[in-house]
Specification:
Elements (H helix, E strand, L loop, with lengths): L11 H5 L1 H5 L18 E7 L3 E7 L11 H7 L3 E9 L2 E7 L12 H18 L3 E7 L4 E7 L2 H24 L9 H11 L4 E7 L9 H10 E9 L1 H4 L6 E5 L4 E5 L3 H25 L2 E6 L4 H9 L15
Parallel strand pairs: 4-5, 4-7, 7-8, 8-11
Antiparallel strand pairs: 1-3, 2-3, 5-6, 9-10
Helix pairs in contact: 4-5, 6-7
């Protein structure tokens, strides 16, 4: 007899299957690499690399081994071949699985975050880059150093399942504490860990994004390209009218009377503040901003940015299967 999976946390076998969706992300972003390892990303520096770049007039100091004798004979002036150096870049995927992410009508933000993180990690490996990550839970975090191997992705996946399952159990058993990582502390820890020359994906609902985060975001932007992955539930964006909603966990629940117009307006203003703040930081940091609504297909959103269009023909694993 088949048992239905618990939808309150991400399951590793489903996250492994995200590699099929990652194959569609053919335009995964690249940046100028600053690392010294060879890969698929061309450095802006010209030198004795592996890929031919151009032919130019010979200059004193150029390597005589790279003289293009055919062009030299044709022009009667010495020319040399210039090569662009290929270097790989590390990609750091920062995933927020704190208690604020345990919310959603049908699909939880915490589970959605795991699917997005796993898909990005698989896309990274597919593009011959190094995949790494930092997963933040209620009061702990796990670092996976970037490596160019599927083993690194599996380490990320195992951590995603562990942290999301731990969060689900904490809610069920009423073991949540007030000693929770703030987004400021998350970014501070990420800045301490991450090395220059990388792409940085921050997957979160940015519930506690504030001016204190700015310093660390600016510091991260100096060492890599920032990509915000904003996850939200439609109830956070706008509450339905004339309904009584139960919100909470197994131990404590409260009723929200959405007939209260003032309450609805304040609720919408809080969401708008976070979105405006994200857009402001996107502009200041020259960053990317991707928005994921929990009840929409996350892969379609990724396809719009990195695949050239919506993925209408392929199916993804359901969040709650």
């Amino acid at each position: 007899m088949l048992h239905k999976k618990d939808p309150s946390y991400a399951h590793s076998d489903d996250l492994i299957r995200c590699r099929f969706g990652a194959q569609s992300l053919k335009n995964f972003p690249r940046i100028d690499a600053k690392s010294t390892e060879r890969g698929m990303n061309r450095s802006k520096f010209k030198g004795r690399g592996m890929d031919f770049s151009e032919v130019r007039n010979y200059q004193p100091g150029d390597d005589a081994r790279h003289i293009d004798w055919r062009v030299t004979a044709k022009t009667q002036k010495p020319h040399t071949k210039i090569f662009s150096e290929e270097k790989e870049k590390p990609i750091h995927i920062i995933t927020d699985i704190r208690p604020n992410m345990f919310f959603g009508r049908d699909n939880l933000k915490s589970v959605s975050a795991c699917y997005i993180a796993a898909t990005l990690a698989w896309a990274c490996i597919k593009n011959d880059d190094r995949a790494g990550g930092i997963i933040f839970g209620q009061n702990d975090h796990k670092e996976i150093k970037p490596k160019k191997s599927s083993r690194s992705v599996l380490q990320i996946i195992n951590a995603l399942q562990t942290f999301s399952e731990t969060l689900a159990k904490a809610y069920t058993e009423g073991n949540l504490t007030d000693d929770t990582y703030s987004l400021t502390k998350m970014l501070s820890e990420a800045r301490r860990i991450i090395s220059p020359g990388c792409s940085i994906f921050i997957i979160s609902d940015f519930m506690d994004l504030n001016d204190q985060c700015d310093q660390y975001l600016f510091e991260l932007a100096k060492i890599g390209s920032i990509n915000f992955c904003h996850i939200f539930d439609s109830f956070e964006q706008k509450l339905p009218k004339d309904r009584s909603l139960k919100v909470g966990n197994s131990d404590r629940q409260i009723n929200l009377d959405t007939r209260d117009r003032l309450m609805r307006v304040k609720h919408e203003q809080l969401f708008k503040y976070r979105l405006d703040k994200l857009n402001e930081m996107r502009t200041k940091l020259n960053a990317e901003l991707l928005s994921f609504e929990t009840n929409h297909d996350y892969l379609n959103t990724l396809m719009l940015h990195y695949g050239g269009g919506k993925n209408r023909n392929k199916r993804r694993p359901s969040f709650a299967n």
